[in-house]
Amino acid sequence: MFPIRLDNIISFFGFAAGGLLGIYVMKRDILTVSLNLGFLAKKVDDQGTRITDLTKAVTDQRVFEERFINIQREITDLKHGRGFVDLKAALRALGDREGD
Question: CA separation (Å) from 13 to 4, 24, 27, 84, 85?
Answer without folding.
Answer: 13, 16, 20, 96, 99
